[in-house]
Amino acid sequence: MKILENKMKYEFADKKLLAKALTHKSLANESQAENEHNEKLEFLGDAVLDLALGELLYEYFPQDNEGDLSKKRASLVNEEHLSIRAQSIGLNEYIRLGKGEIMSNGGQKPRLLASCYEALIGALYLDGGWDKARDFIRQEYYPLLLNFSEESFQRDYKTRLQEKIQSEHRETPTYELVKEDGPPHERIFQVQILFRERVLSSGEGKSKKSAEQNAAKLALEKFEKGELL
Q1: Are strands 188-195 and 198-205 parallel, antiparallel or unpaired?
Q2: Which residues does residue 194 pair with via DSSP β-bridges, in sequence order?
Q3: What per-residue confidence (pLDDT) applies to 185?
Q4: Active-site residue, from 42, 79, 101, 118
Q5: Three state DSSP letters for the chain
Q6: If we measure between CA atoms, which residue out of 85, 98, 17 comes closest to residue 49?
Q7: Cβ-contact 179, 189 below 8 angstroms
Q8: How far is 131 from 223, CA to CA, in rounded Å?
Q9: Tens of pLDDT along 148-206?
Q10: Is 118 tagged catalytic?
Q11: CB 180 within 8 A of CB 187
């Protein structure tokens, strides 16, 4: 854990708190220490991360309105991005798992890594207070903002749409290429999103991937307006 602390640039006063943040419920269940897993710390860390990122984005994008800032924050705290942050500090090497999760390669699961990352932030907040937690989040995210374009923030619309539909219906949408036009160097792709044999939205782009993102963005906007499902 000392290596992890060095990567975080923070030393925990309460090592048990750090150990708890790294303990998945699968291990706690096996050892019958049901209160010694990281789910409550994850809940706390989620709130701390939201506040610290909200403050950082408010400062860095002074011209953005509330909706734009919310979308940027959502793209930075989704499961995919949090799992990437977790791997960047090596959490996959330190997370403590039960035998079943070890056998299923749980240390590489995005959802599990994202949860552990938030739990680590929750533990840091309890151990060092708001200023230390805020400093860690800023050192993690500020360099990302220097290189992020609007397209970078938009790239996670597809993930956000999948998470939303999965949480409500336990199913995932599919993407279908409808049309491909234009010369080889200026192709335009059109993609539609299908869910339960219904077209949710369609989008165009200069690549299939960008068309999928544009379609997912439109679907999310329709959800917000109450036009879908």
Answers
A1: antiparallel
A2: 174, 199
A3: 64
A4: 118
A5: CHHHHHHHCCCCCCHHHHHHHCECHHHHHHCCCCCCCCHHHHHHHHHHHHHHHHHHHHHHCCCCCHHHHHHHHHHHCCHHHHHHHHHHCCHHHHCECCHHHHHCCHHHCHHHHHHHHHHHHHHHHHHHCHHHHHHHHHHHHHHHHHHCCHHHHHCCHHHHHHHHHHHHHCCCCEEEEEEEECCHHHCEEEEEEEECCEEEEEEEECCHHHHHHHHHHHHHHHHHCCCCC
A6: 85
A7: yes
A8: 37
A9: 666 566 556 787 788 788 878 888 899 999 999 887 667 889 999 999 889 999 999 87
A10: yes
A11: yes
Q: Name, in order, each residue with C-beta under 8 angstroms of 66's C-beta and a sequence gap of 6 or more.
A: none
Give residue-wise pLDDT tens across range 17-46: 999 999 988 877 666 655 688 899 999 999
Of 135, 127, 114, 122, nearest in space to 9 by CA: 135
CA distance 59 to 115: 27
Residue 208: what pLDDT? Answer: 84
Which residue among 46, 79, 156, 212 is the active-site one?
46
Neighbours of 80 (CB within 10 A): 17
Q: Is 127 a catalytic residue?
A: no
- What is the distance between the alpha carbons of residues 121 and 24, in angstroms, rounded to a whole number? 15
Cβ(218)–Cβ(203) below 8 Å: yes
Q: Going from the N-terminus, what domains does the chain have, and what CATH number goes with each?
A: 2-149 (1.10.1520.10), 157-224 (3.30.160.20)
Cα 179 from Cα 181, distance rounded (Å): 7
Question: What is the Cα–Cα distance from 82 to 119, expressed in whole angstroms?
Answer: 11
